[in-house]
Amino acid sequence: MLANIVYYLFGHWLGINSPIVLPFIVLAIVLLLAVAMLIVCWLSTLLSPQSRRRCLHLMFLILGFSVPQLYGNYYYNDWRPHLGKQTYQIEGVVLNRLAKPYGDVVYLGLTKVNNKPISSFWGYKKVKVLFTTSHLKTIDRIDLNDTLRLTAKLSQITGYENRFGFNYTQWLFGHRVLATGSYKQDFTQTAISDQSSQTALGKLKQVLSQYQYGKFILALVVADKSLFEQEDFKQLRNWGISHLFAISGLHIGILMGLMIIICRQLSRVLPMFCSMKFCHFVSVLLIWWYLAILDFPVSATRATLLLTFGLSLLHCRLYLQAFNLIGIVMVASLVIDPTNMVKPAWWLSVSAVCSLFLIIRLWPNSSEQTFDEVVKQEDEQANKQEDEQEENARGCGGKAVSHVVCNKGALINKINKHTALKIVVMPFVLSFSRNKQRIISIANNVILNLQRLFILQVALTLGMLPVVIYWMQGIPFLGLINNIIVIPLFSLVIVPAIFVGTIVELISGSKGNWIYQIVDAIFDRLWMVLDFIPYNDIWVILPEYFAWPVLVILILLVWCHSISVFFRRRWFHVIGVLCACVFIPLHSFVTTKVFNKTTTIRIFDVGQGTSVLISNNQTNMLYDLGPVFQSGSSATRHAVKPMLDNLLIDTLDLVVVSHSDTDHRGDLSVLDTLIIKQHLNGCKQLASLQHTYSQSGFELTLLWPTSAILTKAAHIEPETNSAAIEKDHTLANGIANYTDNALSCVIKIKDQSSGKSLLLTGDIDLNVEKALSEMHLAKKVNLNSDIVMSSHHGSKFGSSTLFLRLVAPKLVIHSAGPNNRFNFPHPDVLNRIAELGIEQYSTSHLGEIVITLQKQTLSFGHVNFQLNMWSPYWKRQNPFSIHDQIR
Question: Going by DSSP bridges, is the β-strand pair 612-615/539-541 parallel, antiparallel, or unpaired?
Fold first, then answer.
């Protein structure tokens, strides 16, 4: 069975990452042929059992591939937005609302688009709509579960497509978001629920808003983080406890326990609850209803599936191996939501459960016993101890005091074995002599359970480490210590108290407030403790490719442990540890030295903006920081900084901001954690340096604006601009009207090792290009370069034919955002470059572009793209075609 599950999972991975969605008719034919082939092979007497198993494996592979493909047809067939931003009339249910400084972000579950019904068979298809602060003043308050009818300007889902960093497109697809956009003021109709009759969720939200930490309580109950601020998310992430505020298996386990307790109490009144089967059935049914309200969170759905299958097998008296059961749960969760495979939460949940089962199976105690054997032995010892107590009591006349006297010697021996607890336990022994034996037993059990909890937490952390590194590009250094303290507190106190308080609140009104007050006080003390943690030092950044060596090391350690247990040779553990110690530095050396010898030029995908990293073994230079937005967010934070971190760059030798436009200056404060040796904000500082200077293997030359032009520009008053420009031909061709674009730094960078050069042009226009061309013809500058960044992102007012002929590049790069409102790069520019026979690429279509410079070649080097013909269908503007432009 496990082999069939593995084949299904591999097929599902192929289907969800397929570059194209096969039409429904093709999928139906493929499935029918597969089923027919399976029937023929299974009934044939000519095939061996091994051949039949292979047919079964092939069937599961095809089935796994077909499920995400069917989902792709469901996801796109009803409606998908056209290329670029278009206006649509939409109707939907409010599923989530997030308050931002610049307005509200609302996620609508679509029911109609342009009066066309939208299917919700496989869950709501969503759109993300922004309501700005000015819009919110003209409309009524938006609450969850409201039905809205409005006109919105929507576009296809897109995000920064770089090698590292958060993939926004993948996140949107995983949450079934079809389009993003903004609300237009001329909306048609809004149907809002009656405010006088609020839902239970609204009442709960109103009650919890009175408490300081009510937003955290609300997140623990119904996974509603709409009241969270950006600082809250950052704080929880740095502390390593953000996973506790997602509805997960922890919550499902606690909720199941509470349900069973309630059923037992009801059994005194209703005889039907005396049946354990009926109690389990009702409890599981209520939990599934709870998950349906929350839109089936990934981890909680997995836990509930595991609970449902486990209880079903228990009551049917069937046996199934643990990993087979986990595999069935994984398959079921992927059938419920095929996008789970692209969600980090699903992988984290699965890795946690697999690690837990593996720990229970492999971890022995000192006598080479498994946990199951230890538990069984403890039960036998407890029964034997009770029998001895009864015999001693009968032998001493049946008196409790005599029982203590008879066991005095054994008692003192047991206490002496635990000298660390002697001072604590002895006063209780002397004061409560009747309970001495019980106190020692409880103390021993507490110590044993704490040891197991620590070992379990360490093993879980190590087991989940590859998944955490791959998806989070880092690990919380103190997350282990925090979880050892916080997880028991959440499991035993906070979450049960919150669930009890919520049930009481919903049933009897304000009688549950005292429970919320206690939980709020606990949060206050807990936050005071966690605030002492310096969270700048606890998040260790690791690139995602470090996940693979960590996984190899863990497999090696588990294998060595299994061998040592089988052969009873402890030195196998030493071999595993030594191999791990050798493998980690070897991998670091290979990734940092061997693969980084060549010079690379990385044009980051920062949307409608520019950011270029030029690096070799010795030097890292950054030209522009990408756009910064009115909301305070920036591409520097979400695209540039993650790339620098994952490339293990902690020092920038030179940072140049070409000019002060918002799509170039970015947010330099984001790079505070890096060492920046030299920062030049604009060309005035750059012009003060030498005209040409070397930077550890690079030769950097400022071509525009020259120091003479900057001097003239500084002494000309704005009202005399026109007269001065008419007198000075050089100035006229340079900085007409003193625009920031015309003052962009034009820099030529030559790599001394390969002899190849790069020309960075900023946002210059045709006038500046003409001036540069004249300077080139006069042999004042040398424009000739192998690679050039198109002027002003490919604007039609740049990249003139004369300028391109003089530069004579082998490659032109356009840095522009997908479906941008300026239509960059402009078709005229594309045609000019194509007529000259020059190779050209754009980040708007291909994402991040990486150029590796090569010395002994007539070409500029090797070019890689983040998006290519094999990119998943959910990153394409047309998922049903592999030949169309990707985005």
Answer: unpaired
